[in-house]
Model the fold of this input.
Amino acid sequence: MTELARRVREGEVRALARAATLIENRSSQADALLAELFPHTGRALVIGITGAPGAGKSTLADQLAAAYRGREKTVAVIAVDPTSPYTGGAILGDRIRMVRHHADPGVFIRSMATRGWMGGIARATTDMSLLMDAAGRDVVIVETVGVGQDEVEIARLADVTVVALVPGLGDDVQAIKAGIMEIADVFVLNKADLPGAAKLEREIRNSTSLAHRPDGWSPDVVKTVAHEGGGIEELIAAIEAYRASGAARAEKPVIWKARLREMLRERLMDRLPLDELEAAAVDVSERRRDPYTVVREFLDRIL
Done:
């Protein structure tokens, strides 16, 4: 085992931070490191928290981290923040909101910029969660950006997907739409002390009663007031119930099939010469070449 991998396995925070930077920057060392660490993964509980902006995802992540620490579990929080249009970096807002954990070595917080990646998570989020798993973290909490209905990539990453909704943000309309409502393993009705909470709960339950998941699971609805810590114990109980179910185990091959497909797509895209791709795009837009021939020619070169 290489020195860095050994230090990561021992849970050394500085090594973990260095490895996380290699992964996020897509360093040539990252794949070899992750391949070495992969046999030591599969033990952590990966919880994905998604939902619309303003749903209180950061507060839920903070409270979950505190609750699991109270159970003497080590925690990693991966918070995906929007990319700055000026610097290309993340605002790192979650590190500010979770400042109470800064002196606790049992909580490792990493903010990541989306860097233009779609679906609410960053390109390296899956690899980052595997790194935290290999480092011995018991619980890995992934908080997505909060982009709305198309934020479904988290379901391919998390063992348990928590969808947070709040009254007054149009969630009653979301409850009858496709998108994030269909990936929930647990629903959180946050800010449940606000007017409209009962109506939203009815909408969620009506929506889930009409849906028939292939795994047969019926998502629970947990009411929380996260800024006060209300309902967090009930949320953990719902998360653990799904984790213990046959539905969670049956999803593993499906999740890895999607991950492998995504990894192959990324590696193929990385091998494309960007300058030639841009030139081809100009040719296609001006009808000098057709896109089908362009794609075939690129595939012939890289396969």
Strands lie at 45-51, 75-81, 107-113, 139-143, 160-165, 186-189, 220-223. The mean pLDDT is 84.
